[in-house]
Amino acid sequence: MSTPVGAPTGADAARPWTPVDPVGDLLADLRIHGTFYCRSEATAPWGVEMPAFPGCMAFHVVTRGTVVLEVGGEQLTLGVGDLALVPHGRGHLLRSAVGAPVAGRADLLPQQQVGEHYSVLRLDGGGAAAGMVCGVVEPARPGAAHLLDLLPPVLVVDGRDPRRGGWLPLLLQVISDEAAEDRPGAEAVITRLADVVVLQAVRTWLDTAATGPGWLRALRDPQVGQAVALLHREPGAAWTLTRLAREARMSRSSFAARFTELAGEPVMRYLARWRMHLATVALVEGAQVGELAGRLGYESEAAFSRAYKRIVGVPPTMAGQSAR
Fold first, then answer.
1. Of 61, 35, 84, whose CA–CA distance to 186 is shortest?
2. Around Cβ 120, how many Cβ atoms within 10 Å?
3. What region does 26 belong to: left with phi over 0, alpha with psi -120 to 50, or beta?
4. Running DSSP on this structure, what letter comes out for residue 271?
5. Do residues 8 and 251 lie in contact, with contact meaning Cβ atoms separated by under 8 Å?
6. Which residues of the chain have pLDDT under 70?
7. For residue 205, which of 9, 63, 152, 214 sits 20 to 30 Å off, Cα-Cα?
8. pLDDT of residue 74
C-alpha cells in the first residue's frame, strides 16, 4: 500500500496504518429500539394520518398498488417496493390519492393486534387495493441525532432500481411472514429487520449527500474521515491537532487546512461542539455534570461547565430545562 499524500514521515510513519470505517461508525449510531410495526391493507379511497413522534423515525414500504405520502407541503407518489423514511418524527399523511379522505390517526383506528408491537390496519374504500409495511423506530444511541439533523424531511429509496432496491423485496417478505405467522421471537426479528431498513435508506442518501462544507463531507474524505470517526468513537480522549493529524496520516498543517476546508470550521472547534452535543443529550436523560466532565475529557467539573456555557450559551445545569 502506498503512503497517503501528506502522511508524516519518521517515527510516525512506522506506526501501523489501521483505518476505521467512518461511514460504518456513523451508521452504527442509528441502531434502533422501540420498534412498532404495522402491516396496512387498504382499498381506495383511503387516507390515514401518522401523528408526530418526537425523537423517532417512521418508515413506509409499499407492497401493493400506489401510495401518496404528504410531509409538510411535499407530496410524493410511491410505487411497489419504494421505501420512504420520515426521519424527524414529523406528522404526515398517507393516502390512495391526493385529496382522498382521511379516516383518522393511525394509532387511534381499530387494528388487529398480531403481537405487542405489531398490528394489521385495514381500510376499506371498495376500490383499487394497496398495501404497506410501516414502522416507527427510535435511535438507541445519542450520537444519531448529529446525523438525523442533516437529513431532509423525507428520504425515498426507489425499490425498482436494482442497484439499490434489490434487497428490499426479500426483506419485506421476511417481515410479512414473521408478522402473519406470529412465530416465537417474531418481534425480535422484525426489530432487527427494521434496523436494516433504516440503515439502507440512510446509506442510500449518504451516497449522494454532503456536497457542501460540513462534518459529513469531512467524514467521507479518505484521510480526514479517519480522524472524524475517531472523534465520534472516543470523544473524551486527549485529542490534539498533532494526534489527529497522525491518525489521518497527514502532516499537522495539511490536516488542519484540509479539515477546515471540508467541514467549514477548525477541527478542535468541531470536537468541542461534538462533546457538548453529547453532553446535552446526556444531561436531558439525567446525567450528572461531574460525571460528564470526566467522560468527555475535561480535567474538572468547572472546566467542563465553562466550556459548556461558552459553546451552548447556558450552564449545563440548565440544559435539561432548555431542551424540554
1. 35
2. 14
3. alpha
4. H
5. yes
6. 1-22, 25, 29, 34, 141-143, 159-169, 172, 176, 179-182, 187, 208-213, 320-324
7. 63
8. 92
Per-position DSSP letters for 246-262, written without gaps between them: HHTTS-HHHHHHHHHHH
Total residues belonging to the chain: 324
* pLDDT for 143: 63
Strand, helix or coil at 28? Answer: helix
Q: Which of 255, 80, 37 is nearest to 168 (CA)?
A: 80
Alpha carbons 202 and 191: distance in angstroms, whole number: 17
Contact at 8 Å (CB) between 55 and 138? Answer: yes
CB neighbours (10 Å) of residue 108?
A: 10
C-alpha cell at 173: 417478505
Burial of 150 (0-12, 13-18, 19+ CB in 10 A): middle
How many other C-beta atoms are found inside a 10 Å radius of the C-beta of residue 253?
11
As given in the structure block, the three cell numbers for residue 279 are 453532553
Tell me whether strands 118-124 and 32-43 are parallel, antiparallel or unpaired. parallel
Instruction: Count each helix (H run) and each strand (E run) in the chain, helices first.
Output: 14, 11
- The end-to-end CA distance of the chain, in Å, is 51
Residues 6+ apart with CB under 8 A from 181: none
| pLDDT score recorded for residue 208 | 67
Q: Tell me the Cα Rg of the chain.
A: 23
State the burial class of residue 296 (Cβ atoms within 10 Å of its Cβ: 0-12, 13-18, 19+): buried
> What's the pLDDT at 81?
81
Which pTM does this prediction carry? 0.72
Contacting residues for 304 by C-beta, under 8 A, at least 6 apart: 279, 289, 292, 293, 296, 298, 316
Residues 34, 31: Cα–Cα separation, whole Å? 11
CA distances to 26, 118, 173, 260 from 61, in Å: 24, 15, 11, 39
Q: Are 217 and 26 in contact (CB under 8 A)?
A: no
